[in-house]
Amino acid sequence: MIYLDNAATTWPKPKEVYDAMDHFARTTAANPGRSGHRMATESERRVQEARRCVAKLLNAESPDRIILTFNATDALNIAIKGVLRPGDHAVTSLIEHNSINRPLAAFDVSKARAAQDGTVPPEEVATLIRPQTRLIALTHCSNVLGVVNPIEPIAKIARERGIPLLVDASQTAGVVPIDVQAQRLDLVAFPGHKGCLGPMGTGALYVRPGLAVRPFREGGTGFASESERHPDEYPYHLEGGTPNAHGLAGLAAGLQFIEQTGIERILAHERAMALRFIDALRGHPKITIYSGRAPDRQIGPVSISIAGKEPAQVGAMLDERYEIACRPGLHCAPGTHRFLGTFPHGTVRFSFGYFNTPSDVDAAAKAIEEVAAC
Ligand SMILES: Cc1ncc(COP(=O)(O)O)c(C=O)c1O
């Protein structure tokens, strides 16, 4: 199989990830932090190691500001529902994933339009801010187009207006360098199973020190059990219940792999694969390419369509005839497809990861040309 669906979840994972999860499951997998015995203590140590690795990835002030979640959706829900109150206004964009669109739907929301290249212009965000605006929630990178947003100027606007900025780093964490202190970000949500190279069922939310977020998940934390109130201390304030410790053992290994490999190298490789693919298909009379309009902002995901063929049909042909895995449809981002004019059928998305090779790219481009010709 040529796997080009890394924007959904990366595959394969580094060998170290499988080894770490296998070792954890066979030797350590007691409930972390719940009992005093050595297996539980070691299990807790592994969870905290994952937290430290995430904190290092983002240059967070402390691992305590990292909430371990079950995916990006979980992290985004914790942030949105923990910051906004009924009647509050939020600013977002028209190119968001439903993991932002849907939790925001209960609030008063203004949506910024995207520019021609698919980025969200900071000035467009600024014009939508009102006195009642309590959150700006934006994707760091469109999951349909693979174009990275100019997050620093948006963070500057948010800071000047005193409004917290929530960044959905689902497509960028582990691929594009993020420094929450230098970039002055307030909340960053992302999955562990995409660019961070960990397994599904993992994710994280960074919360800036001093920012108040109300918990919507309350329960057991393994300490202060005499109290009926969920603890105020971070990170436990926003966590509760047994964590996915098996997955977190894998996530720590994925993040260590990224550190050893170098995130700049990973970014350069993914960008090179995406741009090679775009170049190979450029100018084809039947193929429309929606990505690559800002090449220096391009990362792994690339969307295309073929004239006269439904995206779902193209995806099925590539799977059945060529053993190529891609993702046709709306990619949980209907607004992006309305912007592109590809709603309701969507596009065919190819998303390149660190383990894809130039020959994967060339084989996919050749297969697409053959599908377009038949
Ligand atoms: C931009 C964006 N936000 C949120 C999500 C949701 O991620 P998860 O499935 O880990 O909750 C995705 C997943 O594709 C995404 O691309």
* Main sheet: strands, sense, barrel: 7 strands, mixed
Structural class: alpha/beta
Q: What is the string of helix and strand elements?
A: EHHEHEHEHEHEEEHHEEHEEHEH
Helix content: 25-40%
Q: Give a list of the ligands.
A: pyridoxal-5'-phosphate
Compute the CA-based radius of gyration: 21 Å
Average pLDDT confidence is 97
Q: What topology, given as strand order, has the largest sheet?
A: 2-8-7-6-5-3-4
How many strand elements?
13
Large-scale geometry: globular
CATH class of the largest domain: Alpha Beta
- At the fourth level of CATH, the homologous superfamily of the largest domain is Type I PLP-dependent aspartate aminotransferase-like (Major domain)
- Please tell me the CATH architecture of the largest domain by its name: 3-Layer(aba) Sandwich
How many helix segments? 11
Uncertain runs: none
CATH topology label of the largest domain: Aspartate Aminotransferase, domain 2
What's the structural domain tally?
Answer: 2
Gap between N and C termini: 22 Å
Strand content: 5-15%
Task: Describe the protein in words.
- The structure is a single chain.
- The protein has 374 residues and is an alpha/beta fold.
- The chain has two domains: 2-10 and 263-373, Alpha-Beta Complex (Aspartate Aminotransferase, domain 1), CATH 3.90.1150; 15-261, Aspartate Aminotransferase, domain 2, CATH 3.40.640.10.
- The chain contains eleven helices and 13 strands.
- It has helices at 15-27, 38-58, 72-83, 98-104, 122-128, 151-161, 245-261, 263-281, 311-322, 334-340, 358-373, and strands at 2-3, 66-69, 89-93, 108-112, 133-139, 165-168, 187-191, 203-207, 287-289, 301-306, 324-325, 327-329, 347-351.
- The strands form three sheets. It has a seven-stranded mixed sheet with strand order 2-8-7-6-5-3-4, sandwiched between helices.
- Strand 3, helix 4 and strand 4 (108-112) form a beta-alpha-beta unit.
- The longest helix is centred in the N-terminal third of the chain and has 21 residues, at 38-58.
- The chain is globular, with a radius of gyration of 21 Å.
- The mean pLDDT is 97.
